[in-house]
Amino acid sequence: MQDLVVSGLVMGLVATVALDLWALLLNRVAGLPVTNWAMVGRWVANLPRGLVFHKDIGAAEQVSGERPLGWAFHYGVGLVYGVALAVLMGPAWLAAPTLFPAWLFSILMLGFGWFLLQPGLGLGMAASRTPDPTRVRVLGLIAHTVFGVGLWVGALL
Questions:
Q1: Number of folded domains in the chain?
Q2: DSSP assignment string, 39-62
Q3: How far is 92 from 56, CA to CA, in rounded Å?
Q4: Owning domain of residue 50
Q5: DSSP letter for each residue of 68-92
Q6: Do residues 15 and 148 touch, judged by C-beta distance below 8 A?
Q7: Which of 78, 91, 105, 130 could form a disulfide with 16 if both were Cys (CB 3.0 to 4.6 A apart)?
Q8: pTM exceeds 0.85, yes or no
């Protein structure tokens, strides 16, 4: 079990770094904004207070250390996803990892973003309250594909 956890942590770290590099590339090449992890940190900080869904997380009271909290949450989720996939797939898959299960898993995990995080931030279900929900959804699918490739590459390591 310890080998699965270590492999999963490597997978999650590689995948999360890949996701961040992808976001940076999109920012530099296409001018897309990078994620404001402070808002995610603010959301996380409000969870123990029972505040899960906000109309606008930007209007919520600022929280000390929200940016590092958001980054920690981002990497924590990536690590948990990596471990979950490693445990789910088991040692046989880790001995000869294939891309499809990693990609499918990452696409399924997008549901947490669409139906928990985005509504929590005030963006609506699957970004329905954003100016261009289809664009946000497509970018999310692409980003999670990058994450899935990262999971697979991490498993190859």
A1: 1
A2: HHHHHHHHGGGT----S-GGGSPP
A3: 45
A4: 2-156
A5: HHHHHHHHHHHHHHHHHHHHHHHHH
A6: yes
A7: 78
A8: yes
